[in-house]
Write a structure and sequence with these properties.
It is a single chain. The protein is α+β, with helices and mostly antiparallel strands. It folds into three domains: about 190 residues, Rhopdopsin 7-helix transmembrane proteins, CATH 1.20.1070; about 70 residues, Helix Hairpins; about 150 residues, Histidine kinase-like ATPase, C-terminal domain (Heat Shock Protein 90, 2-Layer Sandwich), CATH 3.30.565. The longest helix has about 40 residues. It is elongated.
């Protein structure tokens, strides 16, 4: 059964990569390697049940192709490595063609030909393993090196179980699926990210297996199939359903292009609708802002001209009100554009303390900060943070202004920076604390919701924009508040690795 498992994972991985729209060279080389493994294990599997020379030939041809394709994949996976050369691909390809040709001649019946092919395949794969280790040693510490270390651990486990075929086949199947996730989702840099995706599939497969046994036990008095068999079939269905669905979707799209959401889960329709609404908002916002700002500009200009000609103080005050309200509406339109437009931050390593000092200097110069004690507690030795300086400045300024406005009777605004060290990498922490009235739990739940505000003349987009900016930087923002004691905003930003 474990041979069938490995064969099925190989088929699934190759199909998933072949139907991928990107079809990068790395994807294609791994797909070809999976096809060769599928032929090798498929020949072994079917030869057990339907003994025939053809199955034995397919098994050996697949094995002969594996070394060349493994070396090709190694070069694509480690573009900076120096051990594996292009000539190694050509050399192994010529040697493989020679061995394949021998299988169709009387020499193919030579008793030691199979041992020769296995020795050739083992030597080539060991060569790839050594190149992986050497490449990982030369790599600087970071996400890429971590991924290589995870792959080395998987390969080492496979080598350690080489003499235990059942366990060896299961480990190879797991390694193929691990590599598939690693190259299809390069943004998943941590082991727990990669393993979580696999764990979700395992949990669903286990749930399906248990459900199957409950149904069988209720409706069938006969003996049930072995648990391992049912679990493996459930797992294979789980990893194969995605590629199979993509193939069906493309087929049905050609046959019935008017049916758009037939493959969309009912649970995903709301999420799809939200994405479409966001896209519509993104397209509508510039037009909306243009049509509002033009008449606002005319109104403001006319009010300023009339004010210069006004004779009474009452008329001047009324015209000042018009100008102030026009400025306020312009700020509302700007906030709306900030929220609606797509974010593409230009991330460059910057010192976070300098950004915070600039924002706090503006706060201190603001008349709103009268009666507010501003304390800076900035860590002197912080690593650089990859960030868009203007966007992070906007976040700090927005939260700090909100904190000042929450203390109309005076209070203390404290801003701290700290270095956060963890196994997943260093980060920089920012806390912005006020001693204002605080917020109830119901308000905290909606604090980052667009257009939610507790201010009489607020728009409710400032914190929503801040949350989107921090998320766009790969960071996290959260808030705690105690009514009557104040509010604290926590921001975490990853550092340069």
């Amino acid at each position: 059964m474990e041979i069938f498992m490995l064969m099925a994972v190989g088929i699934t991985a190759s199909v998933a990569l072949m139907i991928n729209k990107k079809r990068e060279p790395l994807h294609l080389s791994f797909a070809a390697l999976c096809v060769a493994i599928t032929f090798h294990k498929g020949g072994t599997f079917f030869n057990q049940f339907f003994p025939h020379a053809a199955w034995r030939l397919i098994e050996l041809l697949g094995l002969v192709a594996i070394p060349t394709l493994a070396i090709h994949f190694s070069r694509d996976l480690f573009p900076g490595q120096t051990l594996v050369k292009k000539r190694d691909i050509r050399t192994t390809a010529l040697f493989a063609l020679g061995l394949a040709a021998l299988l169709f001649t009387p020499l193919g019946r030579w008793p030691h030909i199979v041992s020769l092919i296995y020795f050739y395949a083992d030597a080539a794969l060991l060569f790839c393993y050594l190149s992986l280790i050497l490449h990982a040693r030369k790599k600087a510490a970071g996400a890429e090196k971590k991924r290589l270390v995870y792959l080395i651990i998987a390969c080492t486990a496979a080598i350690a179980t080489y003499t235990l075929p059942p366990l060896f086949n299961l480990i190879i199947a797991g390694m193929l699926y691990f590599i598939l996730i690693m190259i299809v989702h390069p943004h998943l840099t941590e082991l727990h990210d990669l393993m979580t995706r696999a764990l979700v599939i395992l949990i669903v497969a286990l749930f399906t297996t248990v459900l199957f046994y409950l149904v069988i036990g209720f409706f069938s008095p006969g003996p049930a199939p072995p648990f391992l068999l049912v679990f493996m079939v459930s797992f294979l269905i789980m990893i194969a359903v995605g590629p199979f669905q993509v193939v069906l979707k493309r087929l049905f799209t050609r046959l019935a292009p008017e049916i758009k959401d037939v493959f969309t889960s009912p649970f995903d329709l709301d999420e799809k609708l939200e994405r479409e609404k966001a896209l519509l908002l993104e397209k509508m916002a510039p037009v909306f802002a243009h049509e509002i700002r033009n008449p606002l500009g005319s109104i403001k200009g006319a009010a300023q001209i009339l004010r210069s000609e006004a004779v009474s103080e009452e008329q001047q005050n009324l015209l000042d009100v018009i100008t102030q309200e026009v400025n306020r509406l312009n700020r509302v339109v700007s906030q709306f554009l900030d929220y609606a437009r797509p974010y593409s931050p230009e991330l460059r390593p910057r010192p976070i303390n300098a950004v915070i000092e600039k924002a706090l200097a503006l706060i201190e110069a603001n008349s709103l900060a009268a009666g507010i004690d501003i304390h800076w507690e900035l860590h002197p030795h912080l690593p650089l943070v990859p960030m868009d300086q203007e966007q992070i400045h906007q976040v700090i300024l927005n939260i700090a202004i909100n904190a000042v406005e929450a203390m109309p009777e005076g209070g203390t605004l404290t801003v701290r920076t700290s270095r956060i060290e963890s196994d997943t990498g260093d980060a920089v922490g920012i806390t912005i604390r006020d001693t204002g009235a605080g917020m109830p739990r119901e308000t905290l739940k909606q604090i980052f919701t667009p257009f939610f505000t507790t201010k009489e003349r607020g728009v409710g987009l400032g914190l929503a924009v801040c949350e989107r900016i921090i998320r766009g930087h790969g960071g996290k923002i959260r808030v705690k508040s105690i009514p009557g004691k104040g509010t604290i905003f926590y921001i975490r930003l990853e550092t340069v690795r």
